[in-house]
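Example record used in the benchmark description.
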Amino acid sequence: MRNIGFGKSGFRWVLCAAGVAGVLGSVVAPVAKASEYLVNASYAGPNGAAEGPYSGVYNTINAAFAAVGSGASVANPNYIYFAPGTYNVGTTSLSYSKSNVDLIGLSGNPNDVIITSTLDSAYNTGSGTIGTSGSATLQLKGNNVTAAYLTFANSTDTPYIVNDAHQAVSPTGSYATGQSQTTNDPAVALLLQGDEQVFDDVNVLGYQDTLYTKGGRSYFVNSTISGDVDFIFANGTTVFNNSTINIDGDHSGGDIVAPSTDKRTSNGLVFLNSTITGNSVKGNAAIDPMNAANANGPAANSMYLGRPWGWEQAGGDSSAVFINAKMANVIEPAGWLAWNSAETTSNANNNGNPAEDSRFAEYNSTDLLGNSINTSSRVSWSHQLTAAQAADYTVDNIFSESYPWYGDGYPSSDASNPGTGSANPSDPNYSWPAFWGDRNAQNAAADDNVLNNPSSYSDPSWTLGGNWDPTAQLDLIVVPEPATLALLGGFAVLPLMRRPRRRTLAA
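Model output (structure tokens):
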């Protein structure tokens, strides 16, 4: 295995002839912006001073986030620009709840701007541990948030993945109560709890529970997510398009996804045209500052695509689909695994059948060279989709509140009783989407009995509702001209001009 280098080299500039030839090409209409802010760790002036086009310049993220004003809209967002540097928020996670904001790294390379912290869920302030959500480096709770060219990391002292026991190497810190950090715990890099959030060319780096999609809709494109155990998880509807999903542990049994999708939600975690790698993160400054990680990465056939966290969540029903995924040979032939032995035993919470707790599927999985993978050994309760079924999984359809997923039941000819599920709307086993068959009705909750489907669609986590096109938000990303950056000399303050970055994205 090679050591992984995150992000892209260079920057995709649009109509960039001005600084070289002195002649500006076709003029791109400027994008209206409510306000602009700059975060620069080297800034030595008065924090919050208005300079040039910026409403305020700040040397800390906390100060800039606190200053972001209102008055923005989806089409007229606030912008926060980040000069290159490492912004370590230490033992204070950033809970950020403002909407209609673009977060943009100025250099165009996500490796140049690292937003990180040193928290895990077991951190104890003296009055109790902070838990998984509290460990997040950054919590984005606003709607219509866009981020580009940034790295979100959790640099907690644990776990440095160096052996099967997941023990840290010479932990450098201690909890407030004095106990040393010696084992792995959830350590979130990025928590998403808003609706309609978009990420282009970002890195999200960690080990366990790296990316927490806690409700709402989100979209990642041209990005890298790296982790070890359950590192993309929870109940959000999230699409990863043309992205890299890296498994960075060197032990056996880790997995990529742990969805807890609401039973009323058609889709949870969807991967389109993406690549699964198994590369070491040894020496990565963001998450292996002690150079303690194993250099080899995971062994062949040792990791899994996912497991259904939803089985033990109230009203949960795990959904994850991989379409046209290229996979390194680190994935175990079974592909998926049960959450634990309790899930496979009939008890008060389930029927002992993972098929009733999960909606896991693949289509056209290949190796890294594009050769088809033999999926005959996949667990019996996962699915291999047909070409017609896989064709439903487009960005537009997944983020549509009106797309009739039930109408293309599995098999599609079985419209009145899709698949093996009961089409009786008074049956609590019947839920979105019915094509997977009867669902687990024993993880009881107020929302467990989902009635009157498929006559209407209900998803309580989509706070904005309606259909959503994430590419419209991507079109509003605005970046400096190359000549501007050269004149800034260290990203001080004043850019000469900006242009919107526009790019056609694959569906």
